[in-house]
Design a protein that fits this description.
Length: 272
Amino acid sequence: MTGPTGVGIGWRPEIAGFVAELPGLRFVEVVAESVPATGPLPVGLAALRERGVTVVPHGVRLSLGGAEPVDPARVAQLAAVARLVDAPLVSEHIAFVRAGGLEAGHLLPLPRTREAVDAVCANVDRAQAQLPVPIALEPVAALFDWPDDELDEAAFLTEILDRTGALLLLDVANVYANARNRGTDPIALLDRLPLERVAYAHVAGGAEHGGFYHDTHTDPVPAEVLDLLGELCARHRPPALLLERDGHYPPAATLRAELDALAAAAGFPVVT
């Protein structure tokens, strides 16, 4: 079983009809927690699977970066969805979403400390012991850095990947957002990441509010993110690219144009 290839899109019920009509679509990503572990699959997602489109479950609630051990029941649900869709891999975030029994409702960034590295690695190991397929880890967009950081982003991420053997889900929009908000060079980060570990890449839109660039998933993909995608592909082209959209869906022609722009940046066949 191989991983995703080509250009894909995040599957959402609101755009299921649009996604179903994309003739060259190779893969989709579905929020794992939105799929019942025992099935059945949503009709539109089941139809894609039947025509051979790869489906990648994308978790948002494991809290791999939490200080507490990852919940085995949540990992079991992710594993069940992976089996249900015959996924080649799953993905989750290097982040925490709960602490002390409280739910944040958001993917929160970790302090880049060695203690945090240990916590993430322990939870990834616990998850991998239950999962039937490899896991790809996604660094999140962050509006702030913790004051007790000990490692920079590249060193933090590389140590986690090296110790766990996990793959990398590289969100190009997150790289851009973090660099813009920190006043750093996104290309310098790309040059220090283990790009050979990238299983696939995310691309999404965003907007500036209150002096910060927010990774919204509801705005158009800016030219700067597409340029950064080109820089990534010049260094190591990911096997697959995924467009993330999570609301304020534009007309079909606009979505098609964004997918075509991703394909052009990476030299992939168009999906539309």
